[in-house]
Automatic annotation (TrEMBL):
Keywords: Glycoprotein, Hydrolase, Signal. It comes from Sphingobacterium chuzhouense. Belongs to the glycosyl hydrolase 51 family. Its EC number is 3.2.1.55. Residues 457-644 form the Alpha-L-arabinofuranosidase C-terminal domain. This is non-reducing end alpha-L-arabinofuranosidase. InterPro entries: Alpha-L-AF_C, ASD1_cat, CenC_carb-bd, GH, Glyco_hydro_b, Glycosyl_Hydrolase_51.
Length: 653
């Protein structure tokens, strides 16, 4: 819910800081639009880092449910001392993608059970239902299962029993029970009662209350905070996991579709990437696979933007490349992905999509080839992709990497080569301190309007790195708000932008800052989240020049501004950043023959302490404050708080 403040309250906040000063005059050329804003301007970058997928948005509560981690019993603990051979890990190579299972042998009805610790515990809520399920087979119907949900004090807060039927073939069973308490660090006991022999696999626990109520689906609050942004696109699955530490552990989309029990788990490349944040229990189960990514994009009205491996592993790790004469497999993966997304149901991959529940196409329009790759080895592999894709699918726009940095020798080389190739979209990344963002608001003002479009694919202002949860500060967010005025002003050439990384789990992060932080039960947006959300919600359709003394407002006196017009809503939207420790009075002269309706909405993010941040304890310490105001005639005269980002929306008739 928006908090409505009166103008009196706003001025009271300023208190004694308001001082007499000359107003800043800015000219808004409402009748002289300089271009069109991209229809997919503001979006989301998703990567399974910081427990973003497993242990995060993918709502599975059991870790290592199929015993496929490098250590098969990781996350599991035996509950009783049982005879040797009671529990055995079986590796059956005939089982596609999931060869391991757990065999239980009990000659007599001894007490035997396992406990799963979950992903830094299991977040469960009082009164909500949870579905326990498994795959199993047993020769005689003698064994049954009892499950217990325990809170952090080892008290039972939910229980259920599930008989196991006789049968030599694998079958599934499930039972639903309710949690009697809310617990952020619950765990699950599984007791095997009775005597006999049985094999079990895919031991799973999901909340019933998932996003859109889909069984074994996504965590609802984490999807909702994304949907609230109204993003134009979702880029997936990353990120460096696309490349892998080596080619053997690269992301292969075909292994992430089809029946979940057949999807081949791999180690997450962030498992051992940082010595200061080792996470040996971090794997990718691909319950969140390419089908689910496409479905999520559709659910929240976002364009799907998948990124594929180009035949290169991460150049910060092994830097492996596949020989050019063996690149066909990688290019075929791209062709098959387009068929999976857009093909009719009579094609092999279109049929798989339909069999998974989506006969209609996903309307894929853009495809990334490579992530943060660089050098001539990247260009020659990209060229091979481009030749085939443009021949067979000219309707698909290709996104190409400009490397890891926004300047320097690597960037200059790639920028030149990609322009010579006439690539569709160049993906630029910038992780830089606030000063870089503040000084770069004019970065795209002089870019070639006839060349490739730009995707600001990964951006984030770093005050320090690595730091801890909650340190996505107002200083960082405000510098991003200033920089984004330049992206918006150049929304005809910069067609996409997304912060990165997206999610961080407070108990399982490797990289920070991040846009959104979670624990097992809660989620909150950082100040950076609120900044990009305001840009996304108030995007407009046309770029409106806004100038001071005939120049774009790109940091003169630490002020930044951009403006757009929304042709559908018939509204002028002004974005203004005051990066000063004093309030600023500004006059916006609206140069237009249109009639201006005085009633307007003013939305402000502000705090005089640049080091302040949101947290689990204070998730809304920085949040938008909205007031209704009335301006007279064709001049917007207003006072803007110290260290503030303001959006003004005014009706135009």
């Amino acid at each position: 819910m928006k908090k409505i403040l009166s103008l009196t309250t706003i001025f009271a906040i300023c208190g004694t800081f308001l001082f007499a000063q000359n107003a800043i005059d800015l000219k808004v050329q409402l009748d002289n639009a300089s271009g069109k804003i991209s229809s997919h301007m503001w979006g989301i970058f998703f990567e399974d880092i910081n427990m973003g997928a497993d242990g995060g948005i993918y709502a599975e509560l059991v870790k290592n449910r199929s015993f496929e981690f490098n250590h098969p019993m990781m996350a599991w603990k035996r509950l009783e001392n049982v005879p040797e051979g009671t529990f055995l890990i079986v590796n059956d190579s005939r089982r596609k993608g999931n060869p391991r299972s757990l065999k239980i042998h009990k000659a007599t009805d001894i007490k035997a059970g396992l406990q799963n610790e979950g992903f830094r515990g299991m977040g469960v809520r009082k009164g909500e239902g949870y579905e326990f399920s498994l795959m199993y087979r047993q020769a005689s119907p003698d064994m049954r299962i009892k499950v217990e949900l325990l809170n952090e004090n080892d008290n039972v807060i939910g229980t259920a029993e599930l008989p196991l039927s006789e049968g030599a073939n694998w079958q599934t069973g499930s039972v639903v029970f309710t949690s009697a308490e809310t617990s952020p660090k619950a765990k699950l006991n599984i007791w095997f009662q009775g005597a006999g022999n049985a094999e079990v696999d895919m031991l799973s626990l999901f909340p019933q209350d998932t996003w859109k109520g889909r069984p074994k689906g996504l965590r609802k609050d984490m999807v909702q905070i994304l949907a609230d942004m109204e993003p134009d696109f979702i880029r997936f699955p990353g990120g460096c996991i696309v490349e892998g530490r080596d080619l053997a552990t690269r992301f292969q989309w075909k292994k992430t579709v089809g029946p979940i029990e057949e999807r081949e788990l791999i180690i997450n490349r962030w498992n051992t990437e940082f010595n200061h944040r080792l996470t040996p229990d971090y794997f990718q189960t691909f319950g969140l696979g390419f089908y689910e990514y496409f479905l999520l994009s559709e659910d929240i009205g976002a364009e799907p933007v998948p990124i594929l491996n180009c035949g290169m592993a991460c150049q910060f790790n092994t830097g492996e490349v596949v020989p050019l004469d063996e690149l066909d497999e990688y290019i075929q993966d791209a062709l098959d992905l387009i068929e999976f997304a857009n093909g009719n149901i009579n094609t092999p991959w279109g049929k798989l999509r339909a069999d998974m529940g989506h006969p209609e196409p996903f309307h894929l329009k853009m495809l990334g080839v490579g992530n943060e790759n660089w050098g001539p080895q990247y260009i020659e592999r990209l060229a091979a992709f481009q030749q085939v894709l443009k021949e067979k699918h000219p309707e698909i726009q290709i996104i190409a990497s400009s490397g890891t940095d926004p300047e320097g020798e690597r960037f200059d080389y790639l920028d030149q080569k990609l322009r010579e190739m006439n690539i569709d979209i160049i993906d630029e990344h910038y992780y830089r301190p606030p000063a870089w963002f503040l000084s770069g608001a004019d970065r795209y003002d002089d870019y070639d309007r006839n060349g490739p479009k730009i995707f600001a694919g990964e951006y984030a202002s770093h005050t320090t790195r690595p730091n801890g949860p909650g340190r996505s500060t107002w200083e960082a967010a405000l510098s991003e708000a200033a920089f984004l005025t330049g992206l918006e002003r150049n929304g005809d050439i910069v067609t996409m932008a997304s912060y990165a990384p997206l999610f961080g789990h407070v108990d399982g992060w490797q990289w920070s800052p991040d846009l959104i932080w979670v624990d097992n039960l809660h989620v909150y947006g950082t100040p950076s989240y609120h900044v990009q959300k305001l840009y996304s919600l108030y995007k407009g359709t046309d770029i409106i020049p806004i100038q001071r003394d005939g120049q774009n407002v790109t940091g003169q006196d630490s002020l930044y501004a951009s403006a757009v017009y929304d042709a559908e809503a018939k509204e002028l939207i002004i974005k203004f950043v005051n990066y000063n420790d004093q309030p600023v009075v500004a006059n916006f002269q609206l140069d237009t023959k249109k009639k201006i309706k005085g009633d307007a909405t003013k939305i402000t993010l502000a705090n005089e302490n640049l080091n302040v941040a949101n947290s689990l304890e204070e998730p809304l310490k920085i949040q938008p404050q909205t007031v209704q105001v009335n301006y007279k005639g064709k001049t917007i005269n207003d006072t803007f708080l110290p260290y503030s980002f303001t959006v003004i929306k005014i009706s135009v008739q």
